[in-house]
Amino acid sequence: MAADAATNGTPGTNGRLDDRAAQDAYLDAAYRADAAALRGRLLALTRNPSVADDLVAAAFVRLVAQVRAGRPPEDPGAWLYRVGYNLAISGGRRHVVATRAMPGLVDHGVGESPEDEIVRRERDDVVRDALATLGDEDRELVLMAASGYRPVEIAGMTGRTNEATRTRLCRARGRLRGTLLAGGLAW
Do residue 45 and residue 136 come from a single domain? Predict the structure, then answer.
């Protein structure tokens, strides 16, 4: 149907439409011949009139791009149906993925209150000050242990024996605990 309109224009070599008027005639004929049938097919597929209208519009936008690029399809009705069908399937897949991912996008947790934030900052300051009272080597041992390193690993990294590292770490923790208790932080 609409392919006949292409022959009314000025076809160039390889079935191309050479001038803008011929392209417009081709597109107009394709729209008149295939838009209603395409909408009906997509409406049956999607069961949603607004989605079907959007898909028809998207399919025709792609047809315009094809024609303007000099590649008009031989059977625009079949081409439009395939493009519309592919768009519907892709949209359905995106909808399923979005629906599945949606619960993870909502954070139902309540943020930290301003009071809790201030208490946390004050506690961090007390701990920071207490760590500053330790010597550099003891502070390093305590921070490594707090980061999850085991005494054996700390010993290997610091070049001490396992027993010496454990003893020194125990004493450093004891001094830190005493400083924290004196600063009013319950252990």
Answer: no
